[in-house]
Every structure is written in structure tokens, then in C-alpha cells.
Amino acid sequence: MVQEGCFRYYWEGAHPNADVAWIYGDTAKAAEATGDIARAEAAYKEAIANCKEPLGQFMNNNVMMTNAVLCFEDRDKARKLALERVSGYLVTMVNLYHDTMPKSPDAITWPGAPIQLKDLAAGGDPEELLDQMIAGGYMLVGNPEEVSEQLEAYKSVGCDQLVFGMPQDLHKDEIFELLEVFGDQVIRQHDPDPVHSTDKYRATAKPKYPAFNNPLPEVEWPTVLPVTALEYTPGFEVGD
Q1: Fewer beta carbons under 10 A from the terminal one: N or C of the chain?
Q2: Domain ranges of the chain
């Protein structure tokens, strides 16, 4: 954690459309966003290096990014799934529930049918559009060799940690296959250290504030808990 000024410095100049440019096929805007990300990450690294008084007990010098991945032994299968299964479904849910946020340009709201990636080709070549999305860094699609090569772009902009999501419309067997192929053939090439960098930083933490030993406040505690909160996990005891 860094002080407030460091966060301000990092976020200045962040592209407002970096998270939605790819889904609307705007490759020029996507390229601009990529450049902004590289500059923002460089600013963050500079700021955290010069931060003398972190708010927390250690500085987590770790830049995390997120993306979607479709990695299969069969590259044609990966590309087919990208074109036919990747959609703006979550965007339609955001348009429905997040009334404090502006709607996406298409304004499609659930239960309306979301835009699929292939629809963005608008009469053009969907395969060419997919290549543009991959080249822009907004999807990782292909066989393990291709995905490994695509990951290099994240290293070039200073990304320390990449977290992946998968399209919502994958079947269970497809999810397991993807995880196995990606885990066995890609992760080991790019992340050979089993200890996460944040764990290393946390190990250097020095207490800055006294432990909270005050009595709990007099409030009305919940009487109904979700079923999952009551499920017993072997080896786990209440209070752990």
C-alpha cells in the first residue's frame, strides 16, 4: 500500500475506455489505451519507489492486470470459442443493475441478447477482427505456444501479475481442459516461482499500529447466515 499521492500519480492519465475498447472493436482506441497503461504503470513504479511513508505495514510493489484467456491444444477450437462464446453478457448486467454508471454505447440491457465478438466484424472477416483483438492485448487466444507469446506483451508494459477470467458460456469439460492446458504448459514457463511476490513483501511487514483489542461494539448482529457460511470444511475449525 502506498500513500495517497502515489495512487493519484498512478491513476492520472489512465484511459477512460481501456476496459471497454476491445468489446466494441475500436482498435485505435484500444492501442491508445495500451499506451496509457504502460505510462501509468511506469508512473506507479516510480511513485512507489519514491514513497517513504506507506500507509500499511509493507509496500506491495505489484501491478496486477486482468484479461480473458482461451487456451487449448487445438488452436482452431480456441478461436472458434472466442468468436462464438465471448460476448458482452456482463455488460448487459452492468447496464441493468449499475444505474450510477453510464450505459455502454450499445445500451443493451439484460435480458437483451448481448453482442458477440463475431458480431463486431459487421460484415468483415471475424478471424481478422480476432487477430486484431489478440494483437491489441485484449484477449489471449490460441494454443499454449501462441498464448505464451501473447503474454510477453504484458511483461513489456511492466505487469507483475496477470489474473484471468474465462467466458461465461463454457461447458464444464471445456473449463477443466482450459485450466489443465494453461496450468501445465503456460504458467510454468512464465511463473516458475511458487511464492507470490506479495507474500514476499508481506513477510517483511513491520507492525505500525497497535493490535485491536477493544471490546466489540454494541450492534445488532445478523441472525441469518448464508448456507455456505455454515458448511463444515474438514480441517477447519471456527475461529481459525
Answers
A1: C
A2: 4-206
